[in-house]
């Protein structure tokens, strides 16, 4: 238990540091992250350039500070939109059932049967490399997971005695959904949202690395890795520094998501104890 708590505290500290550095990037940056200076290109770590410089002489420390902004923001926005779409569809399908439920169930099965990474690459490739197409690709490949879990929870909850009692008292469908069913699935949605943000960051990094996400000269960790491939032998720090940032960010979010699941999902805890 102590080990789990230490991991959680470490993950929280890492997440706070990364978020704080990204938000305060204009104050913490020592150089202009967009300004090239060929006179100091591919320099190693020094007091003047903490993480060295890239192939265009841009300060890596400043670019690292700004680089987390795009990945985090895009992942959070995509997760919020996916949650909104999946929650709406899952609530309506689980509560009302019928042909609408059947159609969306078949549709979600189709989406979940397609490899997510390949589907995102196809969508981003067809629509072109832009922020809008990246968010759309993330939402299209993510909403089905939310909707299926919400639908399963609603199907179980609507058979509970308290729902039947509220129906007998004349409670409307809208009030049942918004005031009595949704509060019972909020904990699972928070856990799914946290995990989805972590996966979204990894997806954004992969698409940006392939040139289908964030476009240069916008500072982004995965774009930095892509730009540094030609110099991995002479300047390995150009890959190691942004790669470590991506790893630590995803690691901290996943640890926090697992901890939230352990604390909020009582049935998961009962299964583990059994």
Protein model, in words:
The relative contact order is 0.14. Helices cover 73% and strands 0% of the residues. Helix 4 packs antiparallel against helix 7 (143-157) and helix 5 (116-127) runs antiparallel to helix 6 (131-140). With 274 residues, it is mainly alpha-helical. It has 13 helices and no strands. It is elongated, with a radius of gyration of 22 Å. Residues 267-274 have low confidence and may be disordered.
Helix and strand layout, with pairings?
Layout: H1 2-23, H2 25-28, H3 60-96, H4 98-113, H5 116-127, H6 131-140, H7 143-157, H8 161-168, H9 173-181, H10 186-209, H11 221-227, H12 237-264, H13 266-273
Helix pairs in contact: 1-3, 1-12, 3-4, 3-6, 3-7, 3-10, 3-12, 4-7, 5-6, 10-11, 10-12, 11-12
Mean pLDDT, nearest integer? 80
Number of strands: 0
Low-confidence stretches: 267-274
Shape: elongated
Major sheet summary line: none
**Head-to-tail CA distance between termini:** 17 Å
Beta-strand percentage?
Answer: under 5%
Number of helices: 13
Q: Return the string of H and E elements.
A: HHHHHHHHHHHHH
Estimated helix fraction: over 70%
- Cα-based radius of gyration, to the nearest Å: 22 Å
User: Which class best fits the helix and strand makeup?
Assistant: mainly alpha
Assembly category: single chain
């Amino acid at each position: 238990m102590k080990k789990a708590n230490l991991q959680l505290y470490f993950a929280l500290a890492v997440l706070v540091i990364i978020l704080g550095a990204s938000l305060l990037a204009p104050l913490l940056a020592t150089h202009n992250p967009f300004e090239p200076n060929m006179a100091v290109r591919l320099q190693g770590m020094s007091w003047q350039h903490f993480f060295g410089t890239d192939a265009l002489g841009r300060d890596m420390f400043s670019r690292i500070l700004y680089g987390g902004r795009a990945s985090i923001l895009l992942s959070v926005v995509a997760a919020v939109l996916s949650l909104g779409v999946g929650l709406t569809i899952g609530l309506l399908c689980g509560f009302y059932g019928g042909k609408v439920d059947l159609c969306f169930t078949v549709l979600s099965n189709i989406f979940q049967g397609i490899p997510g990474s390949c589907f995102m690459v196809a969508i981003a490739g067809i629509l072109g490399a832009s922020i809008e197409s990246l968010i759309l690709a993330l939402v299209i490949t993510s909403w089905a997971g939310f909707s299926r879990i919400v639908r399963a929870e609603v199907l179980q909850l609507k058979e509970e005695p308290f729902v039947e009692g509220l129906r007998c008292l004349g409670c409307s469908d809208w009030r049942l959904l918004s005031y009595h069913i949704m509060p019972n699935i909020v904990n699972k949605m928070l856990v799914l949202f946290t995990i989805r943000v972590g996966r979204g960051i990894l997806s954004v990094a992969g698409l940006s690395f392939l040139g289908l996400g964030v476009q240069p000269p916008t500072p982004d960790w995965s774009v930095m890795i892509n730009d540094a491939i030609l110099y991995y032998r002479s300047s390995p720090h150009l890959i190691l520094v942004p790669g470590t940032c991506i790893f630590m960010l995803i690691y901290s979010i996943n640890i926090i998501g697992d901890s939230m699941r352990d604390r909020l999902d009582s049935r998961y805890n009962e299964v583990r104890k059994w």
